[in-house]
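Sanity check

After download, print the first record. It should look like this:
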Amino acid sequence: MPELPEVETMVRGLRPAMLGSTILQIELLDHFMLHGGSPDQIIQSLTNHKVLAIHRRGKWVLIEVETGPVLVIEPRMTGGFWLVTPDRPNQARLIFHVSVAPYKIWFCDTRRLGRIRLYANLTEAQTSISKSQAEDALAITCDALTERLIKTSRPIKPTLMDQKIVSGIGNIYADEILFAARIHPERISSSLKLTEIRQIHSQISPILERAIEAEGTSFDAGYRTVLGLEGGFLAVNAMYGHGGEPCPACQTPILKTQITGLANRPTHYCPKCQTLPGKKKRIQS
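Expected structure tokens:
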């Protein structure tokens, strides 16, 4: 957390507040989070310049100013933007003072796991990001996904969560995509038939778009929208967070478990709708 839908929600919330506004002042409150560019470089490059565009790549936010520099912010586990006074102002790591309402925009990060980097221009930023991030989950083609899946012997769920395979999918949405495609999360990626890979690919955008429409997922205080509201996806999703409840397709109890490659992260699936070839069905009592 946050995953692609949460970061896209952040970007869509930031655009009305920042696009066309001038950055009057930047407060860098936590230099620990800087992993590219010094505090002075960031302040000098962005201050008194208009925000030209705000982009998203996978789980990263890119803020581009009119003179060319791009500030890339990776929220990671507990980072997020606020257009209203944050619940915990003491956890603010970066504050933009802009020329139009709301005048102050906070970036907060409870666990200080986020990353802030400065690049000379958008091309340099995108080139650097592409070294560790594959195509965005909303843009990847089925052919590109197929080429990567058939080369790995890892289970499909952690493979989908590998940002070098496809950028933006995390634990929550991997569960939803695989249920919609009726694929067991422990299926070995290279064992999937082409028709099954097409099923997976066909469900990526609809699931993510539905989550974006719900403004992401809040299952604890770790994620809020830019207005401090909870994301609503858990009210409409099928699997994640519904362990023990009836599967919406067949009424079999949803299984909550852990699988290889995802230590300490829960996996939810329907043991009837998502069978594992050669393995006896596991049905939760």
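If your output differs, re-run the checksum step. Summary of this record's structure: The chain has two domains: 4-130, 142-269.
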